[in-house]
Write a structure and sequence with these properties.
By secondary structure, this protein is α+β, with helices and mostly antiparallel strands. The protein has helices at 8-29, 76-88, 90-110, 134-137, 142-145, 170-236, 242-276, 303-306, 311-332, 377-444, 449-483, 496-500, and strands at 116-119, 122-127, 151-163, 337-348, 360-369. Strands 1, 2, 3, 4 and 5 form a 5-stranded antiparallel beta sheet that branches. The longest helix is centred in the C-terminal third of the chain and has 68 residues, at 377-444. 30% of the residues are buried.
Length: 509
């Protein structure tokens, strides 16, 4: 070795003996990953739901929601509408596109594991100055007579390789953060899907409630029309006064107005359902079918199972994992950056000798750099990452608490509304009996028509309340299913490998 330069043979021997050692050291150091290890923070989980007292439990063999949850309601029309949400709703398509974007970001972060290789072709023609160099100093005029200095060509075909080994785990933490973020995005898709399915079911049962209310009002209009005919007959016979006729007409018109108002609300709900299934409202219609029957028995399970059955909880937990990995990325910035680079190719001053073996060139060497002063940038970035993790923990715990509240709210609603419906049914029957008796008394002339109007109004109000109670029970059942996660489980969340592969290589979330 002379002057610090290795001859060609010696250089090859040196690389043959030192390069494997360097690669082994790199691999060993690559196992070092800075930053805190992720551990899911604990949450307060009650042993049971408070509002389960008096709750009608599902059959023992049906302890979990399975398959399409809306099929438990036994309505083929609802089943057909729900099937269209998954393929036609634009909001759901947007959520799935966001997931694909997050999956692509995982592959983008993972690309930092590998070297960057660039290939280029270059050509340059240059002319040196005629006034520079020894010939110009000696007063040479040849170059000047020839129009300038020496002209030359330069042909180059370089191949450059650059690699920054992941000594401190920065790339691994970045990949880990991106994978957790993609998993959270996949859970967001499930949350959006469940929300849209639940919204459709809510709108559907409200529409069916209005259909039942409209049928009731139509029957009431027919009954009030008969009462008006009776009153007119009695007025013609001199038994009733004109006031009775006017009151009967006013009562009939009021019932007709209520029926028309129901039509407005129904049209708006039908338009909302059309939007959910991705169809223009002008070309969408749902035949009128009154709501009948009560809500199905819904398996509730234990509160601890809720942590694995709600996609929004899964999304919040995955965002905690992502935020924890970002702390490692921030800490890795304190360590030196080591870069391995190599360059090879062909270069020549002539085209004929450009791609010949003697025109080859190569260079290889490592580089290391360390930031010695950044004005507190890395410290601030680390503190920001830790604060973001703390915020994600608080969000996760609040999401869990909100999930427990939602289940308790709808358990209480179903239990209380069922009891209220039984009481209301008794009121409906009593009001109907009162109408019958009062109408008979009016025919006999023992009471005035005002008594008939009063009892009929009370009966109509009780019947409308009973219909609305049935609708509220169905809505509470849908909301309970939604609060329980709709049959989804954490096992359906894509793995880290799933979110790393391209969408055409794995299933959609």
């Amino acid at each position: 070795m002379r002057g610090g330069v290795l001859p060609g043979a010696a250089a090859r021997r040196w690389l043959a003996t030192r390069l494997p050692v360097a690669l082994i050291v790199t691999a060993l150091l690559g196992g070092c990953v800075v930053g805190p290890k992720y551990v899911r923070p604990p949450v307060i989980t009650p042993p049971t739901y408070k509002e389960l007292d008096g709750w009608k439990m599902a059959e023992p063999g049906d302890a979990d929601l399975r398959g399409p949850w809306w099929q438990r309601f036994g309505d083929p029309a609802l089943d057909a509408l729900e099937a269209r949400v998954d393929v036609s709703n634009q909001n759901l398509m947007s959520a799935e596109a966001t997931y694909r974007q997050a999956s692509a970001l995982v592959r983008e972060a993972r690309s930092a594991y590998f070297p960057t290789v660039t290939v280029g072709v270059g050509y340059a023609r240059s002319r040196s100055s005629a006034t520079l160099g020894s010939s110009a100093s000696a007063g040479s005029t040849g170059a000047t007579r020839n129009g300038g200095g020496t002209k030359s060509d330069f042909f180059q075909l370089p191949i450059d390789i650059t690699w920054a080994p992941d000594f401190w785990g920065k790339v691994r933490r970045s990949v880990e953060a991106s994978q957790a973020g993609a998993q959270a995005s996949a859970a967001d898709v499930q949350t959006a899907r469940l929300s849209l399915q639940g919204e459709l079911a809510l709108d559907y049962f409200q529409l069916r409630t209005l259909d039942a209310q409209r049928r009731l009002l139509d029957a009431t209009v027919a009954a009030f029309d008969r009462s008006l005919s009776l009153t007119r007959t009695r007025y013609i016979g001199g038994v009733a006064s004109q006031v009775d006729v006017v009151q009967a007409q006013a009562q009939l018109d009021s019932a007709r107005a209520q029926a028309l108002d129901v039509g407005v609300q129904r049209a708006q709900l039908e338009h909302a359902i059309a939007l959910l299934v991705g169809q223009p409202p002008s070309s969408f219609a749902i035949p009128a079918t009154p709501l009948s029957g009560g809500p199905p028995a819904i398996p509730v399970g234990v509160p601890s199972a809720l942590l694995e059955r709600r996609p929004d909880i899964a999304a919040a937990e995955r965002r905690m994992a992502s935020a924890n990995a970002e702390i490692g990325v921030a800490i890795a910035a304190y360590y030196p950056t080591i870069t391995l680079s190599a360059s090879t190719g062909f270069e020549s001053a002539g085209l004929a000798t450009w791609l010949t073996w003697p025109s080859r060139f190569w260079s290889v060497g490592p580089g290391i750099s360390e930031t010695v002063f950044d004005g507190g940038l890395r410290r601030a970035q680390t503190e920001a990452a830790r604060a973001a993790f703390d915020a994600s923990v608080a969000t996760y715990r609040q999401t869990v608490l909100g999930a427990f509240q939602s289940v308790e709210d709808n358990l209480a609603a179903l239990r209380i509304l069922e009891e209220e419906a039984r009481v209301q049914e008794a009121a409906v029957q009593a009001a109907a009996r009162s109408v019958t008796l009062t109408t008979e008394q009016y025919r006999a002339g023992t009471v005035g028509y005002l008594n008939v109007i009063t009892t009929q109004t009370i009966a109509l109000g009780n019947e409308i309340t009973a219909v609305q109670l049935l609708g509220r029970r169905m809505i509470a059942a849908v909301q309970l299913v939604e609060a329980l996660g709709g049959g989804w489980t954490e096992r359906e969340l894509p793995s880290a490998g799933d979110v790393t592969r391209r969408p055409d290589e794995t299933h959609r979330p």
